[in-house]
Amino acid sequence: LESRSFGKGDCLIKEGDDGDSIFIIASGHVAVYKHDESGNKIRLGTLQEGEFFGEFGYFAGHKRQACVEAMEDVEILEMSRENMDAVIEDFPSVEDVLEAFFKERVMQNILATNVLFRELELNDRKEIAHKFKLSEVKEDEDIVVEGDDGDSMYLIRSGRSEERRVGKECRSRWSPYH
C-alpha cells in the first residue's frame, strides 16, 4: 500500500482517468461525483474512514467512472492492480466483497444519473437500488418480447436497446456501443 495525503478540495481521482488501483480511506471524508450528459455535477455520495473506492476501474478494467474530492484533509492508501490481484489470489473472499460493493455502486450510479430517479435523496436511491437486479444481456438477446408479462422495468447501464419487429411480434434487443 502506498500512503497519500490530500487537502480539502483536492481531486483524488478524475472521471475518465485510467483505473489501475483501489483506494482505502485511512482518515477523512471524500465526496463522489459524476457528470451527467449536460456536464452537470451529480453527487453520488460520501465515503469516510475505512471505506474504499476505485473498484469500478478495477473490475471493469477501464476508465474511472466518477470524480472523488477531499471534503477535508484526507489520508488514503492506494493499492495497485498487481498488488490487489496478489491479495485476491491468497484471499479469494476479498474479490467477493469487492464485487458486491461494485454491483451496489453500479446501481446507485445508474439511479443517480437516471432522469426518473436523480432528483431523489441519496438514501431513497439506495433503498430503491436494492429492488433492482443486475443482469448481463448478450448481444442480440431479447430483453422484452411483445405479449410477455410487463412486470419489470429495465435500466441500461451500457449499450443500447433497439426495437425490432419479428413477424408480428415486437422485440427489444440489446447491442453494445461501437
Q: Helicity level, as a percent range?
A: 25-40%
Rg calc: 19 Å
Low-pLDDT segments? none
Largest sheet: 4 strands, antiparallel
Strand segment tally: 11
Summed up, the helix count is 4
Order of helices and strands: EEEEEEHEEHHHEEE
Nearest-integer average pLDDT: 81
What order do the strands of the largest sheet run in, or round the barrel if closed?
1-8-3-6
- Which class best fits the helix and strand makeup? alpha+beta
N- to C-terminal separation?
37 Å
Gross morphology is: globular
| Beta-strand content | 25-35%
Topology:
Layout: E1 2-6, E2 11-13, E3 21-27, E4 29-35, E5 41-48, E6 52-53, H1 55-60, E7 67-70, E8 74-80, H2 81-90, H3 93-113, H4 122-129, E9 142-145, E10 160-166, E11 169-175
Describe this structure in words.
The chain is α+β, with helices and mostly antiparallel strands and 178 residues long. It has helices spanning 55-60, 81-90, 93-113, 122-129; strands at residues 2-6, 11-13, 21-27, 29-35, 41-48, 52-53, 67-70, 74-80, 142-145, 160-166, 169-175. A four-stranded antiparallel sheet has the order 1-8-3-6. α3 (93-113) crosses α4. The protein is globular and about 60 Å long. It starts with a strand and ends with a strand.
